[in-house]
Batch of 4 targets.
Target 1
Amino acid sequence: MVLIERNDDFLYNQLIKLGDMMGDGLHLEPDGKWIEREYKSVCRALGLIKNKPRQNHSPQINEFMAKRVQAVKCDCGGNLKQSRSGSFIAKCEQCDKKYRLGSRKK
């Protein structure tokens, strides 16, 4: 098994250079958006920024939609069916019209 050493010196030097560029205001120019993205990716590689994993709310959404689909009917009188698991979109089984039956609160 071969272990590869992580060379943090290169990443820290790159972080310093990108920080200097941002200090000069180059990231605010029209073609300077790459500097912000690169800075953030280097910070992630060094472990300075930790990403929180997304939470899965599909079971709660599916339970909500099961009740909502039975309460609401299509304009044509057809039954609605959830388009896919974890989605607030329902589709009529007869006329294929789509309805948004819920939303996430922020």
Note: The helical segments are 8-23, 33-46, 58-71.
Target 2
Amino acid sequence: MAKFRKSPFSLILALLLVVSFLSAPVQAAPEETSTGRLRISFSAAVEKSLKKTATALDRASLALFEKLDKSDNLSVKVHSHFYDAAIRRYFISISGAGVFQGKLPFKLEHDSYLVSGNQEISYDFYFSDVKKERDGISFKYSGNFVVSLDRVAYQMIKTIPHLAASGSLGPVFDMLSEFFDKLNIGILSEAISETLRKFSTVALTKAGTELLSQAGKNHNLGKVIAGCIKDGSMLSFIGITIIKTASISAVSVSGASLGAAVGSIVAPGPGTAVGAFLGSQIMTLAAKILVHELTAELPMRINIRRMVNCWHILQHNAGDREARQTLEESQKKIEKKISAEFNREKFSLFETLLEQIEKMPAADRPALIPVLKQLQQLLGFKITNEGDWYYARQYYQLKAAVEKWGLQKHVVFTVEPRQNSAR
């Protein structure tokens, strides 16, 4: 696996992070659920504001992807996009192709990768047909990202406590609405396209050095630019490119923050305050992004998450072929791994699966019904057809878990192994 900045695909994920963190509702009291997962209680008014924020996020995302699709080095097709108020998550799935014409500080070793993350944003992007050509590195991609708006809200409370302490939501949501209204999609899309065309550490250093000389007495902006040069990532190149479009004297920076500088340019007025928060969150997430080489087996937890996200997408859009293909592939991989362990009389992955499902919100568990049914059939077969009662304990463990989760109508247990036969 590789870290975020060691991949030419980090650019698209940077875009997804920027767009998805435009939603940031505030004011909530955390509480623990029976499964130990954080749950945030909102009033009806805040739930309504959440929906309004999701609508604005959707509108901005679609506008940005439409603009990028018209660029000369990246195509974007949106398959599904919606907000599920029951679980407070915004979903969007896309696919397309691109050409990276800059210079990478490393050598590509494979032709396919999976880029994933699971923070306030959960995302999985599959990059295929990655190859070097005369005009650059071409690639195809498909995937989805999911923004958990309640988790974003909780992060805002922790990061900007005075917003929650004020007890007034109106000004916060007014600020967010204004941010979306003023968001300059043109500047943002052009910066992304420019990064695909020209990114290199040399180009970043040159552009940053030129901006440093222009910054003059704007010391905070100078710190931001110097930080970008030192960082050397594609995220920094996007930021530098956006700053280049503005009059340096007009760029407002709060606490030497790249997010604040970019925010003040792409959405003058509310952009500085919102951008400072978004920028800090994006950089935190960027550090946790992983690139998985598909020559190796993916961890089961990643396939579980991919199933859950794609299942939710298919509940709203059964015709999303990309989501269906991903769900089916992930399901097969989970079943294959656990079945192989069953054949060796091993059950660690089976137990891990049950533990992962137990930790899920109840609304996510139905996504795993096909896997549970398959495992129930495998265990039942070994008990009844092969007379192997060694698996009775696992059969009962699965049955108890399914009943606890209220899924017994979907996963029907008909085999009744003798309890005193289990070893």
Note: The chain is about 55% helix and 15% strand.
Target 3
Amino acid sequence: MQERLSACNEQGIEFQSESLFQNFLIAPFLRLPLIMLYSLFTILYTPAEEDKSPIAPPKPPSWAVWYISNSAGMAISPAPSRIAALRSKNCLALAIVDVESLPSTLTPYYRSSLKIDFRMLFENGKPIREQWVFRDEKSNGLVVAVAVIQPSVAPAVAFVECYNENGFIEEERLFDDKETQIKYFYKGRILARTETHIWEKIEKPREDAALESEPAAVETESETLEAEAADESLEAETEAPLEPEFETVETTVYTDYYRYSVSDSLRAVERVFQKGKPEAGRFVVAFPSMKLRQEIDSNFVKTASTNRSGFLAGAEASNALYTVDGRGRVLSETQRDESGGILVETKNTWAGGRISVVEQRLFEKPQDADAEESPEIDEDKPEKRGKVVEERRVEYEYNSDGDRVLEKNYNNGALERTVRKSGNQEIEEIYLDGKIVLRAVWEGNRKIKEERVK
């Protein structure tokens, strides 16, 4: 080795060779303390950076029960384990949770007598939706809320629905770029009106803008020059623009009134604005035309009919002629087209203060109805009637209290339908060739049973 070092010294590289030799022998003993010192220095003196990692998605409780599901969140079949459930396209985690796990938006709806049913829906192994259902002792869902889960975004409640003991919705809240609250009011079991409140985020006015709008005090020329110089220096120092501030303000309030016929069918909706109203502060939408977005069209509202049953027909009539008795009861209604041709003729038969029979005849359009005539109807001219194409008849029966208990519908003399009321239930029967073929049971305007009759 000495000979080798001597040879290296003669070539002028002894120092380098010795350095390499020493590093090779000593480095393993020095490397460990250096690494430890570097790690300690990094932990103690490295400045903390902002946490730019994405928000971790929420997880269901550890005691959750897992189900195979569909995309709508229906629990189809139990899964043997969480891993097995997550292998399917959609799965569902179900659990009973306490009030501490609720979002702050849902806390005001909780009562000690309610049970919180929590569900989390997964798609391809990732959570996409959370749902909370507040149930009473009868397992009726009184409050339903849903939150949408998106990547790198904290879950936010999308909507909240509140129901009463009868299953009718009482309040609805929607959260998107604005917040909408709708309250429902009933008269018995019929919706009478709804009240809608809308809150939106509005940019707050800046204080410096308010100061600029104030009138300036009288200053001398020197003071003005000094103030301008100070403003220029201040603007040079603070060139970064100020971020706008927002506040939530109630911008729109309106009430919808629902109008019904004698047979409890919806006939019209009237919207009255109390705040934030447009140019026309009141809209009326008539049915059966289902076009709630066409309130501004002045030709949208059509003439209403006095039909007492959904079985009876209406027509696109331009005018209608009514006859009444001395008590103001409608005895007949004649609907006509623009040229005066009769389209539908309806006659009412009264028994006491109630309608017992409604007879209706439908006519085909008269052949000369297409001729150009004045829209005004001349009473001296004979009525233009086409051929009768259909005859309908509705018979009503009442109990001793005056409540309607039976309705029979005839089409061209043949019985087609009967509706019999018994307590809170209505039994509807459909006839074909004089025989019952279908029977349905309704309770509270909801169909609870349907069967075919052989």
Note: The helical segments are 2-10, 14-45, 82-86, 207-213, 221-237.
Target 4
Amino acid sequence: MTAKWSAAASAAEVSPAMRYKEIAGLARKATVDLQAWERSRMAELESATVAAREEIEAATEREQRAMSQAQRWWRMALDNVARLSWVNVGPEPEPIDSARASQLSRYTEDVRSGYQELTQAVLDLGWRAR
């Protein structure tokens, strides 16, 4: 027999019950594979969630430190200019929602250098400050 005839003969020999078992076996394997993928994906998502929560906590802590630092410099600046009767002090600065977290160190440095410039300017006034 040729290969064409033997394939047709073997296909005819497969009973519907055998074909059903084959399909059921493939469906079971697909179910097991899907469950395994879902478990691994759930583990990935849980670890990503934990990492995201840790990042949020760290960012919140950095924000609190920056706000505390800025408020401390503001109070020190108020102490520096308290002797200057001709200086009108405005309201305490508020955080800006549009600030970028990646620029936090630059913002902090700007506030620190501004405070140092103010302190130096008050010191330069010398006797006029009183």
Note: The chain has three helices and no strands.
